[in-house]
Amino acid sequence: MLQEEIVDFLKNVIPFNLLSGETLGKMAADIAMDYSPRGEEILQQDGPPSEFLGIIKKGGVKVFQALDNDEEVVLDLRGEGEHFGMLSILSGDRSRNNVVAIEDTICYKVPRKTVLALLQENHEVNQYFIKSFFVNLLDKTYEETRKAYTGGTTGEQLLFSTAVRDIVRAEPRTVALDTTIQQAAADMAAQRIGSLVVVDSAGQPLGMVTDRDFREKVVAVARDVAAPVREIMSAPLISVDAEDNCFEALMKMIRHRIHHILILENGRLLGLLTNHDFMLLQGSSPTVLVKEIAHVRTIAELQGTAPKFYKAVSSLLRHGARPHNITGMITELLEKICNTVVDIFEKDNGPGPVPYSLFFFGAGGRHELTLSFGVEMGIVHQDAASPDAAKETAAYFNRLAETLNSAMQNCRINGAGQCLQAANIRAASAWREGFKKWGTGAGTGLDAGFFDMRAVRGEKARVDSLREYLEKRTGQSRGLMEAVAAETLHERPPLGFFKNFVVEKGGGHKNELDLYRRGILPLVGCARIFSLAKGVARGSTLGRLKELTSRHGFKVAEDMGQAFGYLNSQLIRSQLHQAEEGLTPDNFINPYSLTNFERKTLKESFQLTARLYDEIEGDYWSGKVLP
């Protein structure tokens, strides 16, 4: 009876869950159960090596080292399903840490000889103890999450497993730069195709002409058809590498609002893909939703948009999309909706009285929006020429803000919050003045999300120059780095002293925690601080972490990236479940509704953030509090 109980328990303990039932049965035959009352010393620092691996069935232990001055350094607090004594078993010479029961504790004791035989005979278990413990957890729990959503058509899986080179059907038709418009049109008619790639004398692609170019740039304006085709071609070209997967190509098409994309192999033109090619591969395509948005003529038509997001995300999640694929798609589609609303507004109200750029900041600026959306926008516009012009400019952009906020709320995309607040509509000079005061206690109303500013409409350079100014100024100032650190460290990871989850005690989210605010955002903030310190100017969190690893040898960035992806996958999965239940997705999850593996990985993610906070506090924080 005891052996069956042990086997059932170990089936839910990493890495023993990797073993077969037969192997677990043999292992259980050697295992004894032991009780340690609170305060009992189980292993002693510098004492004899452990003769067993302790696996905690109930209770908890403290792992610590005693210093010469009688102080102690707590290395870890371990609870149900966790183990201790492995280092001592492997070294065979002495116990390197003290292990003491912090409450009445029941352990399964696996003899040393059984553990060593297990490592010798089971490659996966051996690799588990060699690899990073944290990475192992993430591999396992991510796979569990993916399996939970497995099902549906294989076509959608192909988006992630198929290289674009594998669906290129034929080489694109090309035409020289000096070919006349009339000859190019005749070639397209004769070959019954809808586009031509314009190339130079060396065959390098420089632009493209499509049916739409002939309609809008020739027929509609009565252009001379004897003119060279270079006058109407679209450039620069958008391309992908032949080895990129189809989803990456599809995302580029959505981002740039195009229906054709060039495939390059070692810089050479290999082929041309269209949305139709992806529809043949997949059976359906996210670009279909983009096309629907493009055909919207009134804001009322956007009201049914949110459920289409849920359907698209459900499809991607079921078929292996990584969290950054999903948040990237959500952000791109939100961007298209915002631009459609502005198109409708400008049709009714005319263009802006001065040139302007609309930008996303925060999660939208990083391409990291989830199904709770929460998009934040700002406007940077040219300074008005006179006081009267300034009043006209302010009135115009206030009307635009009201339209955007109302549209987002009506189509259930931004909840009750405002996506574009009046305080975030400023002339370029006013933005720069605000950035000069940020972090000084002058009450500018700005936050760290402005380090992620990204233009979604209008001149890109107008936004980029402000963001670059803020990054450079902050990275070179100790005081501003402390201000960024203070803002980041304000939100602590939701773990108590004994690694229990800190959840809401009452209200509508009782026993839940805000995974975005208390889990994801702290990792975003840590990545931002390290990037500012190293001069990394990438826009997304994963982009920053990859550059910190590749250029600066920042070893913990890999674990940060894994944790960031895992937390996002859990949040999106929870939000999708809420949507399927007819609820409005939010950022709260109940950690106790997760599996044992998922809870363990969640705790490891929060502990990683806590360790990063310790490092940042040591480097930058001086108790400064932002206004």
Mean pLDDT: 82
Percent of residues in β-strands:
15-25%
The tally of beta strands, per DSSP, is: 20
- Helical content (DSSP H or I, runs of 4+): 40-55%
Domain count: the total is: 3
Let me know the largest β-sheet: 4 strands, antiparallel
Placed side by side, the strands forming the largest sheet appear as: 1-8-3-6
Give start-end ranges of low-pLDDT stretches.
149-156, 622-627
Q: Calculate the terminal CA-CA distance, rounded to whole Å.
A: 62 Å
The 3D shape can be described as globular
Q: What structural class do you assign from the helix and strand content?
A: alpha+beta
Treating each run of at least 4 consecutive H or I residues as one helix, how many helices? 22
Radius of gyration: 29 Å
Report on this model:
- The chain has 627 residues and is α+β, with helices and mostly antiparallel strands.
- It folds into 3 domains: 2-130, Jelly Rolls, CATH 2.60.120; 131-153 and 315-627, no CATH class; 159-282, CBS-domain (Roll).
- Helix content is 48%, strand content 16%.
- The protein has 22 helices and 20 strands.
- The chain has a 4-stranded antiparallel beta sheet with strand order 1-8-3-6. A 4-stranded antiparallel beta sheet has the order 2-7-4-5, with no helix packed on it.
- It is globular, with a radius of gyration of 29 Å.
